Fold CRISPR-associated exonuclease Cas4.
Amino acid sequence: MDENNISGMHIYYYYVCKRKLWYFSNGLAMESENENVKIGKLIDETTYKQKKKHIMIDNTINIDFITEHKLLHEVKKSRKIEEAGIAQLKYYLYYLKKRGVEGIKGRIDYPLLKQSLNVELSEEDERELESATADIVKIISAALPPKFKSKRICKSCAYYDLCCI
């Protein structure tokens, strides 16, 4: 894989857990039975029904929906891993900017909380994303996953049993 094929999910997992990123990128998909993932899918199915959702670009990034005034929306169930969601949305802005799309902004929507967070891309963010995408390529190309590092979110992760064997 090269940096042109990095998806929003790669970025999200990079900021959540590099081990989860490796598992996901190497074909170990365990999310389908995870309760948190099921709740996220239910939120996706039942909110913003009037919007054209899941806009796939270059078969690489999948934007939840776009509204007028070039505003990209990413829908999240909670603010628990907000840093990763912000990075994912900034990556979408970065990805589109690299392809000549100007003047776009982002918003993370938390429908259960009835809150939103506006997100913009800075030059510093661009440098950080360039570094992150290079690191992602290294991580997912490795023969083995990164070492396990226990975090507060581990117990709710779909990969918890695999990591803690």
Summary: The two ends are 28 Å apart (CA to CA).
